[in-house]
């Protein structure tokens, strides 16, 4: 049973907002990441006084040499120093110039899980993650860093409860941007309004950050009659931090890695009056190193379309995978016992995925419905997930999302329940 299901609203979880003093921003506001450093001191620090030898009287310090006045009763008191003798205080704190290009943001995602008549499953509430966003931009160069943390590991194959979701340096090349480091792959529709997600994200196909280089650009502007976004990506190895479930992506197997992952995507957009049509075509090759069966060549292709009109959004995506990325899904293997031999897991080398949905936004409220499916053809298993949802924007920095989940598994052995639950998330960011 799924207890920690999630698809992270990419975008989703923590939008970046600058919160430097307005005086610093007024100099040269520009977005971007880089860690701040302390302000440069405006005066040299005072040297420590050296105590005199015990038999030598210490000379009076300058601060002690102040006029002494008498009140006529024989007692004396030190007169207050004149105003002109007091040190001038700076009216503002001057930050280093490089911090003009830095913005910071932070966010947190609180998750409540309520199973609906699911045997042996209890409700739960947890901080799904908190994150920090650091962006810097200096001329053509930039950096982006997003660390995330939580109380426990999201998945058993994570190294710990703290990880880096993205971390890359970038160069603006004019018509394109080059990112080098850990960044998201772009195969098919990237994401939409959801927390729980879809079958694809639990198989490691979406919200997947990896290590390598991404060259991406945009021909035209988003409000032009025609524009085109494109990506050309190469990842040396996987990032190890997507939200796939155990045994459903290469990264959850000990010693296994996805390598030499190459992705190309084009995304033309057409504007016709109030309607916007976005099309997408993607292709991917990767090598799945699976210790139990050796390296596997894997090919993926995807086509998608999105229509938006007057608050309504319709989307659809079809994706096909040829090649094995796992060995123990949909059927997990079992180890040998004293009385029974080991049983190998079974996986599919031919898998088809489908995603379709709609959203309608009226003011701060958005109604959402999404259906997703994965057909593992070699083993005749199909999983289908229905997710109706309602999102409410409470403020620019706070939103609520409630999602009902109906997730089933159909196989030659019959139908079974993967999850049936209500999920409520509170997403706050600054």
In short:
Helices cover 2% and strands 51% of the residues. The protein is mainly beta.
Key features?
2 helices, 2% helix, 430 residues, two-stranded antiparallel sheet, 20 strands, mainly beta, globular, 16-stranded antiparallel β-barrel, Porin, single chain
Coarse structural class: mainly beta
Low-confidence stretches: 1-77
The radius of gyration computed from the alpha-carbon positions, rounded to a whole number of angstroms, is 30 Å
Q: What is the number of domains?
A: 1
In terms of DSSP E residues, the strand content is over 45%
- Output the strand order for the largest sheet: 3-4-5-6-7-8-9-10-11-12-13-16-17-18-19-20
Given the structure, what is the number of helices?
Answer: 2
User: If you consult CATH, what is the topology?
Assistant: Porin
CATH architecture, by name, is: Beta Barrel
Spatial shape: globular
Number of strands: 20
CATH class label: Mainly Beta
Q: Fraction of residues in helices? A: under 10%
Mean pLDDT: 85
CATH homology superfamily name: Porin
Q: Report the biggest beta sheet as strand number plus sense, adding barrel if it closes.
A: 16 strands, antiparallel, barrel
Helix-strand string:
HEEEEEEEHEEEEEEEEEEEEE
């Amino acid at each position: 049973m799924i207890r920690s299901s999630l698809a992270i609203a990419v975008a989703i979880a923590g939008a970046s907002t600058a919160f430097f003093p307005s005086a610093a921003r007024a100099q040269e506001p520009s977005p971007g990441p880089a860690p701040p450093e302390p302000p440069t001191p405006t005066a040299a620090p005072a040297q420590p006084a050296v105590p005199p030898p015990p038999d030598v009287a210490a000379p009076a310090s300058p601060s002690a040499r102040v006029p002494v006045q008498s009140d006529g009763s024989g007692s004396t008191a030190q007169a207050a120093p004149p105003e002109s003798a007091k040190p001038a205080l700076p009216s503002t704190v001057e930050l280093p110039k490089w911090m003009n290009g830095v913005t910071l943001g932070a966010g947190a995602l609180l998750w409540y899980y309520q199973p609906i008549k699911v045997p042996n499953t209890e409700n739960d509430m947890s901080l799904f993650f908190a994150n920090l966003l650091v962006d810097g931009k200096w001329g053509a160069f930039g950096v982006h860093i997003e660390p995330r943390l939580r109380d426990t590991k999201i998945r058993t194959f994570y190294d710990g409860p703290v990880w880096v979701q993205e971390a890359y340096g970038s160069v603006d090349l004019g018509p394109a941007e080059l990112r080098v480091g850990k960044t998201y792959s772009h195969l098919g529709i990237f994401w939409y309004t959801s927390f729980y997600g879809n079958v694809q994200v639990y198989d490691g196909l979406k919200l997947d950050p990896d290590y390598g280089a991404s060259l991406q650009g945009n021909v035209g502007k988003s409000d032009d009659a025609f524009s085109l976004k494109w990506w050309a990506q190469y990842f040396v190895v996987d990032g190890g931090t997507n939200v796939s479930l155990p045994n459903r992506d290469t990264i959850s197997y000990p010693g296994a890695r996805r390598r030499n992952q190459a992705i190309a995507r084009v995304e033309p957009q057409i504007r016709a009056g109030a309607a916007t049509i976005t099309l997408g075509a993607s292709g991917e090759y990767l090598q799945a190193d699976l210790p139990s069966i050796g390296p596997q060549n894997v090919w993926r292709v995807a086509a998608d379309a999105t229509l938006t009109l007057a608050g309504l959004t319709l989307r659809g995506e079809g994706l096909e995978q040829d090649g094995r990325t796992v060995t123990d899904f949909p059927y997990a293997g079992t180890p040998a016992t004293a009385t029974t031999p080991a049983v190998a897991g079974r996986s599919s080398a031919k898998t088809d995925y489908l995603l379709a949905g709609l959203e309608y936004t009226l003011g701060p409220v958005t109604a959402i419905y999404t259906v997703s499916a994965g057909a593992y053809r070699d083993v005749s298993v199909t999983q289908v997930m229905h997710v109706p949802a309602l999102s409410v924007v409470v403020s620019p920095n706070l939103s609520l999302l409630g999602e009902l989940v109906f997730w089933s598994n159909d196989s030659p052995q019959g139908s079974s329940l993967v999850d049936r639950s209500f999920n409520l998330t509170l997403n706050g960011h600054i």
